[in-house]
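Q: What does the predicted 3D structure of Putative polysaccharide deacetylase look like?
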Amino acid sequence: MTISFKRRLKLLGAAALTRLGMPRLARRGQTLLVLCYHRVVPEDQAAAVLSSPYIVVREDSFARQMALLAAECAVVPLEDGLDLLARGQLPRRAVAITFDDGWKDTRTTALPILERHGLPALVYLTTGVIGTGRLFWQERLTHALRLLQAVDGSRNAPPPLPPDLAGLWQRAHHNGVLDSHRLTRLLKQSTPDAGERLATALLDGLGHPALPPEVHAANAMLDWDDVHAMQRRGVAFGSHTVDHVLLPAATPEVRAAQLEESRRVLRQRLGQEVRALAYPNGDHSLAVRRAAMAAGYTSAATLERGFNDESLDCLRVRRVNVYEGKTAGPRGFSPDLFRFILTAAL
Ligand SMILES: [Zn+2]
């Protein structure tokens, strides 16, 4: 676990970390490090995965990360960890493992690896998409953009779009070239249904409303049978809202409905109270934290990096997002880089 200063400097030089600046080093008091994962993808499905690289870890890397955590850290269930931290009884090198969104591969790929090492995990579910057979709009949009590119060699000629989406499409261009990251950001900041509508309009307009079955399968979400099976196997669950709405920009009514309805659905489906929340995108504000408390949540996770220590506000739990590129050295997964992430909470 200990990394020499020289080694740390060398690691800092790695491309994956340079832009992050100097690390905030581990504090001496009790700390809980919360890791955030999204997708864990088998090698043979990687080519069909449409998700952003910032939410994907390869199965092999994940397996090596879990083996390392089991050997070198004290992995605790998130909510137990928060309790122990509040009581000053947290073990050394305490780590909690969480997953966002509710991807199918959390059950099929990640869970068997967690079970092999006896590691607990908490999964935050976007309740509105679980069990519907639908995909997230970002993956459908990526598929549509690839189709567009294949159709006309550029991404500049979409099928006819409603005025608001056409305006957004134009704003996502720079020097005549579509910036897909900017497009995604604009859609997330727009009305809650904008991304869904654009993906649907593009796919319909291109004559491909449905994704090929193998692509759909490689980007699928959990259904409720999955959730129940995971619950029986000891997985804990929390809310990630109903529709993955960015809460700071939502109206107070939408915000309250997203927080309350997802909690109600989870209570009904799981037969127990759910008190853990992860803010979609990690985005929160004072008003959002108040709404989360009013809806009955006792913990809420952000994507602000760092350790959680005695000064923790439980509605502002820090988490470190882990994705493939962050732990990749010249020869694939680097245990040293992963240890560095654990040491510096980067
Ligand atoms: Zn999410």
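A (community wiki): The structure tokens above were generated from the sequence. Confidence is low (pLDDT under 50) at residues 1-27. The radius of gyration is 20 Å.
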